[in-house]
Every structure is written in C-alpha cells, then in structure tokens.
Amino acid sequence: MRVLAFVLVMLPATNAAQAQADYGFRFVRIRFDDGTGGRGTFGGAAWAHDFPTAEENFHIALKRTTAIHVEEPYVVLDLSDDRIFEHPVLYLCEPGYWTLNEKELQNLRSYLERGGFILFDDFRGDYEWMNLYEQMKRVFPDIEPSELLPEHPIWSIYYDVDPVAAPSLVRGFGGFHGDDRYLGYFDDKGRLMALANHNQDIGDGWEYPNNNFDNASTVSFQMGINFVIWALSH
Questions:
Q1: Tens digits of residue pLDDT in 165-191
Q2: How far apart are CA 27 and CA 215, in angstroms?
C-alpha cells in the first residue's frame, strides 16, 4: 500500500473567506435547488442522495488508507457561499438536476480558475448529461469536456483502477443508460478542474460498503481516493 501525506493547496482568499490553512481535508458536498423546492437535509433532495453516510464512510476510508489529515465534520455548502474557497475539493451529486444562478456561476468559475476541483457524480442518460453539459457551458463557454482515458495517471496515482472494467453503481432507473464514462474539464494549462462520473454513482458505493458485489464498493472508494489525491497534488 502506498502511504502519502499532503499539504493542502491553499486557494487565494476572497474578501469573505480565508484560505484553508489550519485544518485538514474535509468532504464538501454542494447543495443546490433541484427545481422541486426540496432543499432539506433529508426528504429526497437530489443534492442529498447518499447523505450523510457516504461522506462519513469516505472520511473513514481516507483515514485508514492514506496519511491525509482528515478534519471532522464533513461540510455542506451552496456554491454561492464564499466558504467554498476554503476547500480544494467539492462534490456535487445528481448534476442532471443542477441549475446555476448567477452568483453560483461566478463563484464556481472563480473557484476552478484559482485551483479548485469539483467532482460530479450519480447521474445517468442523455438528458442528465446534457443538463450538466449546458450548465458547465455557462461556466466555461470555450471548454469542451474530454474523456479520461484508462491511460490517464489519475487511475494509478494511488490505487490501480481500470475504469473500463470498473462496475457501474448507477441503479438504472428506467433501464440501461449506457456504459459509464469519466469526462474531464481541463484549463488552458491542462490542469483537471472538474470530473464527471457519467452513468456512475461512486457515492452509492461509499454509502453501502457492505454491498460489495463484484467489488463495486471497494472500487468506488479507490476511485474517490484517487480523485482526491489527484486534486490535492495538482
């Protein structure tokens, strides 16, 4: 097992937020209005799927398998909240139902340009992909996503993961939605700013680690840890 330690990359502070300095990595889930009016912690809002068990288990996995200093508790923030600039990694669940208002758009663009990273997870099919695509087009009109091929070093930075052979954890509402894909948004220097797990739901694997059919849950933790390590070190 590779054991790595990291100093968290500090993002430049905004007027309303201080850069992360005196605490460790925290899992940050992004809350958003899914168009149904559901913004409660529980009660089925799209942003809250697998919450809070997924992040609790992911924190445990990071502590047990890496030397990353993990600080409790996990955090839930809106993109309009300038506290996002205190954290190098954000997680957004169900982006197929995600719509940005102007403040959120400006904050996300600034956050990613300053060195932040966002992971999109738990969405499926053409409709949900197009919604994410259209929202990210508003953030970066000139950037097209590109597929993260199996040769990309993110798949071997800590655990060796084969994205082609990795089982999909999407629960296929309405039938099969296609093979899982991993699409990245890169800045003009080639840095990976955002990663979208399409037709995939690694958060489900974090929530249900005992449902490890075909090693699906194990692989979901390995993917998540690879993604976090990549974001912290690039």
A1: 999 888 645 455 678 999 999 999 999
A2: 23
Is this structure's pTM higher than 0.70? yes
Q: Residue 126 belongs to what H/E stretch?
A: helix 125-139
Torsion angle of C-alpha atoms 118, 120, 126, 131, degrees rounded to 10 = -60
H or E segment at 192?
strand 192-198
- Which of left, alpha, beta for 146 (phi over 0: left; psi -120 to 50: alpha)? beta
CA distance 123 to 223: 16
Tokens of 163: 């994205």
Length of the chain: 234
**C-alpha to C-alpha distance for 24 and 75, rounded to whole angstroms:** 12
Q: Which of 225, 227, 33 is nearest to 135 (CA)?
A: 33
3-state SS, residue 111:
helix
8 A C-beta contact, residue 37 and residue 104: no
